[in-house]
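Sample 3 of the quickstart, ligand zinc ion:
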Amino acid sequence: MVEFWRGHDITRFPSHLVTQIAEGIYSVGPISTSRTQAGGQSISPFLVVGERAAIVEPGDDLQAPKFLEDVRYLDAIDLDHIDYIIPSHIHMHHVAAMNVLQQEITHAKLVVHQRGVQHMIDPTKLNEATVKQSGEGRCAVLEAVPEDRIMAVAGGEVLDLGGRQLEIIEAVGHAPHDICIFDRLTRALWIGDCLSLNHRIKRASAVMNVPGFDVEQTVAFLHRLRALNPDMLLVWDGITAYYQADELLRTAEEEVLAIEQIVLEGMKQKLMDGKIGEKVLEYRLKVGLGPGGRPGAEPEPPKGPPALYRYLQKKHPELEIPQGVR
Ligand SMILES: [Zn+2]
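Result:
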């Protein structure tokens, strides 16, 4: 289902999964990537068409054949004219489509953050880590991508598709190999997994539970995104397009700073982890967010954000990590 908050022209092509989100930007999906009967994730890769083209967020390998079928049906571009395949990061359900795409689109370059390049050339460790997390047979296993088919980026690169340009932005948040992708023509911004978006309450949240989380870096990153003046935020997981981009980025910053203050106060008062967790939860509920955690799962007792404790302790060495951190 496509959600949108303003009357943008979103055109769905009947009987196929292609939706035109903006000029020359097509979302294909959502296509299920489930390897289990219990169902699973759905992914919507994007095709961006200028004189040349790019695939953004190619997704998992299971959905790649259907993606290619619909791209052929759409007939907006020849597969030979696709120059770039750009996942927001190298987690398996963002990149494993390469198993199929590198056979079918033989000259396109895989664009990944330079920190991810080695894992594409030799995916042994990435595969092991993914299987360990998801279980044997429950996730894709990436085939090696030849080095000469990879373009390493670090942010600031501009990919010219002829008539439109995609700008790469180094991202902060979900993984060290995250990038965002900005289409200068339509001002669409792909944000990968750096923000979670809640269209019901029109808020975005930055990822705060990652090792090395840093408030200043996160806020500076959100400012960089706002400075692009994006018109819409695009994501890969089937809901696709979120408008009111500036408001979403603003709320993400507001939330990071509010939670930082709550946790800082709690640490100064030497509150226990659970007590700080309660105060953070109070804030989340006040702004309309849920308690977090997996939907349908038994709610866990509130706990504070460990990565934020460590960040604040580094900034204020007199503070102690609260007792009771699990
Ligand atoms: Zn990820």
